[in-house]
Design a protein that fits this description.
heterodimer; A: about 270 residues; alpha+beta; Thrombin, subunit H; six-stranded antiparallel beta barrel; 4 helices; about 30% strand; B: about 170 residues; mainly alpha; 8 helices
């Protein structure tokens, strides 16, 4: 109790001291211009220091919020960066296709894979470009490293295609630049394997030859590399099939190019 | 009787301080003040708040009649009143302050008496010169003024203390 009394007495003494000092300073401030300026300056300094510290404290306390905002911005920047990287990649891919001498009759549209199946015998692929982007059915889905599939149907914003890993897809392929032409399709086993079918028995195929698109179909541009031959085997005693190790890696595939031949219908009419 | 004598002497010395300020200015670098010791020798049992109020009013009186800067002496003298009891406890010992026994400077010895007066004067002049300079005087001139003022005022204050609290 006595301790409390002493504490309150001390508090009262301190309060009176501060009041008297403030009163004295106030009077001094009014009675002299020099002291007035000095006290004002000191007061401003104290205020500036106090507000500075308060701001520092406030900033410190709001660090978590700032960090969240920064993380959000970081994410936005990351997305933007990815977008530009994708654009650059697509442009490079297009440039590569151009440099490979593809015929200009094809129109190219870059696209991103939205969904793709690889686990069945009838695998599909869904792309993020649709009829609004100029995609038409029966357009080829390619990359600079191989054929991915073919557009089957088109929505306004998406397109559905059949993957090369689908036994309904066949690509006209050539072994080497001026070699044998044969249809290539998936072997139904691995995602990196395909076979060249219907190769006459009297023709031999060496291992390690590059297989490219022949350009003889109206669907696929010519000379897109597809893979390398791995050896041939006899089927049904009538024809040879050649195993092909595909260049394209379906597991890591994300960006593709849709190649559409605007003259396809005209050519098909002439064929009929 | 003793109390009346003390009050009379206190008021007389206050007037003496006013006269000193107005007519006996030694130099701009030397301030002579009796005020710290006037506060120091206030009765022990006097409440700290009352002592501070007396210091404030005394300072105001001196300012009003002499310096023209109303508040500067009060500003310097109130801290002396605040630490008066603490100083006494430190220099004379806790016992004297606890017993609220009036201390005569003769009893505690000239060294202790001089020490406490010196500290009081130092506090008083520190605040006074700091406020009076108002940031316009450099450190060394201000320090010189402070030292000279303390050196001159301390012996005067010790003499006054002996006068106010004789054996």
């Amino acid at each position: 109790m006595a301790r409390h009394g002493k504490f309150y007495a001390g508090l009262a003494v301190a309060a009176v001291f501060i009041l008297l000092e403030i009163a004295a300073m106030s009077m001094l401030k009014r009675s002299s211009v020099l002291q007035d300026i000095w006290i004002n300056r000191a007061s401003h300094n104290v205020m500036a220091w106090t507000w500075g510290k308060v701001t520092v404290l406030r900033n410190y306390l709001s660090l978590q919020k700032d960090n969240q905002v920064l993380a959000g911005r970081n994410y936005e920047l990351f997305k933007e960066l990815q977008h530009y990287k994708e654009m650059e990649r697509e442009l490079k891919a297009m440039a590569k296709l151009d440099s490979m001498g593809f015929r200009s009759r094809f129109n190219y549209i870059p696209a991103e894979i939205t969904a793709m199946g690889t686990n069945s015998r009838h695998n599909y692929i869904i792309l993020d470009k649709g009829s609004d982007d100029g995609v038409k059915p029966n357009s080829a889905i390619i990359t600079p490293y191989g054929v991915v599939g073919m557009i089957y149907s088109v929505d306004r914003h998406y397109s559905y295609g059949l993957s090369l890993l689908n036994d309904r897809i066949s690509v006209s392929a050539r072994i080497g630049r001026e070699g044998l032409v044969a249809p290539m399709s998936w072997d139904g086993h691995g995602t990196d394997r395909a076979v060249l079918r219907n190769i006459p028995l009297h023709l031999s195929v060496a291992e390690g030859d590059t297989v490219v698109t022949s350009g003889l179909s109206t669907f696929y541009p010519a000379d897109i590399p597809l893979g390398v031959t791995m050896g041939s085997r006899l089927v049904d005693g009538a024809v040879n099939v050649v195993d092909v190790n595909l260049f394209i890696d379906f597991a890591s595939l994300r960006y593709v190019i849709i190649a559409e031949n605007p003259d396809r219908q005209t050519i098909e009419k002439m064929e009929q | 009787m003793k109390r009346g004598r003390f009050i009379l002497l206190y008021l007389t010395l206050l007037v003496a301080q006013i006269v000193l300020c107005n007519y006996f200015s030694l130099s701009n670098y030397v301030l002579v003040s009796l005020l710290p010791v006037l506060i120091l020798v206030l009765p022990h049992r006097m409440n700290g708040i009352v002592a501070m109020l007396i210091a404030f009013v005394s300072g105001l009186t001196v300012d009003f009649f002499s310096t023209g800067m109303l508040g500067i002496t009060s500003l310097s003298l109130v801290p002396v009143a605040l630490i008066r009891r603490i100083l006494m406890a430190l220099v004379f010992g806790d016992e004297i302050v606890t017993r609220e026994e009036e201390t005569t400077f003769g009893r505690v010895g000239i060294i202790k008496a001089s020490l406490i007066v010196l500290i009081s004067c130092a506090i008083y002049f520190l605040v006074y010169i700091w406020a009076d300079s108002a940031g316009t005087v450099g450190f060394w001139p201000a320090a010189g003024r402070f030292l000279l003022s303390v050196i001159v005022s301390t012996p005067v204050c010790v003499l006054v203390a002996r006068l106010l609290r004789p054996e």
